[in-house]
Amino acid sequence: MLIQAGLGISVTGINILISQVAIIFAMIYVYNCTSSPSFTFLNASLTNNLALNLFCYALLILMLVESHRTQTSATNDTMAPVEQPTTSLVLSSHNRQNIVNTVDISFIEVSNNCIIFNTTKGKFVKYQSLKSFLSEHNLPQFKRIHRSYAVNSDCIESIQKNTSGDGYVYLNDQSKLKFSRSFKDQLLN
Question: Which whole-number Å values give the CA distances from 58 to 9, 16, 52, 118, 141, in the listed order?
Answer without folding.
Answer: 8, 16, 10, 64, 53
